[in-house]
Amino acid sequence: MSKVFIEVSLSLDGIIAGPNVSAQVPMGESGHLLYDWHAGGPVDQAQAAAMFEGTGAVLIGRRTFEVAIDVWGEDGAFGRPCVVVTHRRAEPVLRTRTSFEFVTGGLLPALRRARDLAAGQDVCIMGGATLARQYLAAGLVDELRVHLIPVVLGQGSRFFDGFKDFLALTPSSASLTPKATHLRWQVNRPSDQSGAPRT
Amino acid sequence: MSKVFIEVSLSLDGIIAGPNVSAQVPMGESGHLLYDWHAGGPVDQAQAAAMFEGTGAVLIGRRTFEVAIDVWGEDGAFGRPCVVVTHRRAEPVLRTRTSFEFVTGGLLPALRRARDLAAGQDVCIMGGATLARQYLAAGLVDELRVHLIPVVLGQGSRFFDGFKDFLALTPSSASLTPKATHLRWQVNRPSDQSGAPRT
Question: How far B47 CA sits from the closest chain A CA (Å)?
Fold first, then answer.
């Protein structure tokens, strides 16, 4: 059964990008520290290699596309089709291994298109945080994959800022390296959420 | 070598207490969900039992004392001396297994007194969040122990809210149960922090 998962590297204080994100500093100041683990030891490298295993398409926000497309280089980094969720139409952007297609009309049409492109494989929501939070709030996410980085950044954008809903999850795996703690949770189905106590 | 550690249960969105904390609802609305793991399976129970192993004294804030002292019951819950950090002097409060002593003058005198009472064992900083953050910002904490609970609360107080500093940590253990992911990090010594990149 194919699933929709969010893939995110967070500092211990829940920061997903440092302050002052721009095309020059796409992860924000100090934000690159959240991705050091890609160059970590064997377990980290296995995690990085497995990141997109079974993943047929990637969903990203328009701003993420704009600040990061140059960083992703000639091959477009993802090696699979990407759907860019946007309000402004644009022509597809093709890189050697990755296509970027722009879908307007909101979360659902974009997810539908990503599922089509994924052809039965999983769909990965990469960010930005706003897009990931919207899919999470809409109950459209099956799994949350967090790489918890052993730093407190103190400054930047918090992944959960502005997220006001209650969600019950089920932990599914944890793996510890000096560079990151790799964690996965299943997001409980709506039927398991309804009994969630509010007081 | 005895150490100073912070002990905290957090939701995935970093919340340490639900909204509307009061003596009637000391963990805030939904906040009790963060402590369900104490009644979890064998691994959780072992974690709960080990929580104060080797711990000689506990540091808490005045507000935590006031909202929770009734919940802690006849024996005072901790089974070891507690130091309450406060601006207002007060007489010690004695329970059958726990003493609560009020120390004014700030973080350092309170920690010094807790170390004396701990007699070579570890000192645990239990909260509230403000107190724990102050000790962390002051560079007085050796270890952070987080029980990451598989819920997103969406509402309440974030442990790291208002914490603006950079801290480098070293992961030391991770243990996964259906109720919680038990994580520990060593806080790197100041000499390991100075080289922390800001950009």
Answer: 16
The confidence score (pLDDT) of residue A121 equals: 98
Q: What are the pLDDT digits (tens) for A140-188?
A: 999 999 999 999 999 999 999 999 999 999 999 999 888 999 999 999 9
Sequence-distant (≥ 6) Cβ neighbours of residue B77 within 8 angstroms: B71, B95, B98
- pTM here? 0.91
Nearest-by-CA chain A residue for B26: A199
Q: What is the ipTM of this complex?
A: 0.91
Angstrom CA distances, A72 to A15, A66, A83, A84, B77, stand at 22, 11, 15, 14, 54
Residues 6+ apart with CB under 8 A from A194: none
- At B49, which amino acid appears? A
Rounded to 5°, angle at Cα B81 from B77 and B83: 105
To the nearest whole Å, the CA of B5 is away from the closest chain A CA by 16
Specify the residue for token string 């390991």: B192
Say yes or no for a CB contact (<8 Å) between A169 and B151.
yes
Torsion of CA B54, B57, B61, B66, to 10 degrees: 110
B42 pLDDT above the threshold of 90: no
Q: Do A155 and B164 touch (CB under 8 A)?
A: yes
Question: What rounded mean pLDDT belongs to chain A?
Answer: 92
